[in-house]
Amino acid sequence: MPEMSLPMEGSCRCGKVRIRVTAKPMMTAACHCVGCQKMAASAYSLTAMFPVGAFEVIDGEPVVGGAPSDALSHMCCPDCKAWMFTRIAGNDVFVNVHPTMLDDMSWFTPFIETVTKEKLAWAETPAKYSFEGFPPRDQFKSLVAEYAQAG
């Protein structure tokens, strides 16, 4: 699998909102929750957890979309409505970025898969770890460390 080349840029489908990442993700995932299925119009959504300081919007003004809540801000292009990234309230460590928004995602493989209790019976990923919900908080640091060590 190709190595991630940094910095890396990307955009929404119409190109009016552009983003940049300047560090490798802390971890990658596929989420099987029904909410992600509906928002991604797919069996699951993909995410790369980039450190907050390594992610920036470099052009355009994304807007909150996709079932806004106090806990999650799903950021979308105001024009094409593409779901680009998600900020979690109170989380100043990482931003969940959809790797499909990056210009090159050949480096991407989900390391974990989450909310498998809601996954479609035929949906498969190559993720190393599967969780019926989200990883327990006490396992998160070791998962991030293992992902970093894996390369």
Key words describing this protein structure:
2 helices, 32% strand, alpha+beta, eight-stranded mixed beta sheet, 151 residues, glutathione-dependent formaldehyde- activating enzyme (gfa), globular, three-stranded antiparallel beta sheet
List the helices and strands and how they pair.
Blueprint: E1 8-11, E2 18-21, E3 27-31, H1 34-40, E4 45-51, E5 55-59, E6 63-65, E7 72-76, E8 83-88, E9 94-97, E10 112-114, E11 129-130, H2 137-150
Give the terminus-to-terminus CA distance: 11 Å
**Number of discrete domains:** 1
Rough outline: globular
Class from secondary-structure proportions = alpha+beta
Question: Widest sheet: strand order?
Answer: 6-7-8-9-4-3-10-11
At CATH's second level, what is the architecture? Alpha-Beta Complex
Number of helices: 2
The ordered string of helix (H) and strand (E) elements is EEEHEEEEEEEEH
Oligomer: single chain
What does this structure look like?
This protein is an alpha+beta fold and 151 residues long. It has a single domain, classed as Alpha-Beta Complex (glutathione-dependent formaldehyde- activating enzyme (gfa)), CATH 3.90.1590. It is 14% helix and 32% strand. It has 2 helices and 11 strands; from the N terminus they run βββαββββββββα. The strands form 2 sheets. Strands 6-7-8-9-4-3-10-11 form an 8-stranded mixed sheet. The longest helix has 14 residues. The protein starts with 7 loop residues before the first strand and ends with a helix. The model has no long low-confidence stretch (mean pLDDT 95).
